[in-house]
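ARCHIVE CARD
Drawer: 12
Card no.: 0347
Subject: one protein chain, sequence and derived structure
Cross-reference: see card 0346
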Amino acid sequence: MHTNLIISFIYLLCNLAVSISWYYGRDEPDRWSVGEIWPLPQHVKYGKRNRTVSPGMISFEFGERKDCDILLMNGKNYLQKWMFPFPVHAKKGGINYVVTVNVTESCPSGFPQHGDSEEYKLRVSIDGASITSQTVWGAVRAMESFSQLIFYDQKKSKYKVRTVEIHDYPRFPIRGIMIDTSRHYISTNVIKRQLDIMAMNKMNVLHWHLVDTESFPYVSPAFPQLSKIDIMAMNKMNVLHWHLVDTESFPYVSTVFPQLSKIGAYSPNHVYTPDTVRDILQFARIRGIRVIPEFDLPGHTGSWRGQPGLLTECFDEKLKPTYPNLFDPSKEDNFQFLSKFFTEVVNTFPEEFLHLGGDEVDQFIEECWERNEKIQKFMEQKSFGNNTTLLENYFFDKLMNVVDNLPSKRKAIFWQEVFDNNKPKKGSIFHVWKGSTHEDIMNEVDLITSKGFNAIVSACWYLNYIKYGADWKDEIAGSAPSNSRYYYCDPTAFNGTEVQKALVLGGIAAMWGEFVDSTNIESRLWPRASAVAERLWSPEERTLEVSGMKAHISNCVII
């Protein structure tokens, strides 16, 4: 079936669904808006007139940037895939509506980086449209806004474009989604589709939690055993940013250490090879999306067992061996391994941020460090006594030494425990994920920024928690699982100075994978993540004006 026909069918279903479900406390259909921009722009003035348009009559002209692959690919995608989801009978007349795109800076051959401007101006009139931006990335955001101005007039069976003047830019530099490909493998096509929808919501960061306890699907040709199929890992799959690896699996294929994914992945088919990763990175680049990989250390490392001696032997209260899930910091060879491994990672991922985890180490300390005689002797040699926090500090000092000596400079991101429990190194970024109330979350952000560190917030936006209804607009109340608060959570809603609030980089909506896979990730993410996107893009004082129906309409468009 042709792609446009599929899109048309889904579009019609969405319109039908909206038309029969309006009575659940929502605005009446004749009050619904058409051709509105999502997220809400910083400055927008809609015109009173609309222009009839049809497929084949619109073109983008890129002027001096006519050879820019980023602009050309986006122009093609919007004209052929997104602006006109189903065919209409249009008069033949050729192109007579031109969108001129003027970009000041040259077309980047590389990838978007932190701090790149996404600001743009868009003017749409009856006669044509113009986009002005400093960077290509701003132009990409403007093209998305233009596509959202095109709507279908069902009474007249025609497409129309709404006239408008916009000056827009994001409130926060980090507006992201975290996916977890360790607990359940997520196919490349599904990841790409989420990148498409992220671009529609002007989100710019994919946090890829690649590996965890359950599997190691990242393939390293030099260490193939790391992703080799492991039956025990497969049986643990349901016991349980790119969050690439975790205890469950290691799906990342490392060219230097291929054994990691050979032993740590669920199967040889459930891995991400270097070519697959590069394909996803390029797909994200065209859409102005950065990809931050996460390799969680020193805990959640059960799937790293493909590297001999990397993990500490662990024991239960009867001193019987248990599942190893904690890095062994007593061996210098293990830090040399990390140096080689992360050298390969930074050569694969061009992103300047590198997420190194650091969460929930306390869950594994008793079995793996306190009951391990070799670790206890090492602690005595280092004069740590029985204080495992000092051993943690030792590990993080050594890890940061590895990062500081990588061939390409990287800024480390850690989960908040490294700030709370350890000796944080200057320049680290801390990722807030804990807090049973909004006050708890904001107190943590306040504390982190008061010490001069940057913060990223995810605690408000655990989208793997689900409930019935339009939970994206629930007000703040109750405990974390029942507290959706997606729209009402502001990352800077704490009593700090303006200097502190400037240290908040934004937020990332998390979709953990214990019960999420390729079949349900999209329905759980959207439109709920659209509320997060608007909170992080739009002006603080205006975002509470959103209506639930606006999110419904947005969802029908992005589907």
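Annotation on reverse: The longest strand covers residues 43-53. Residues 113 and 387 are 40 Å apart (CA to CA).
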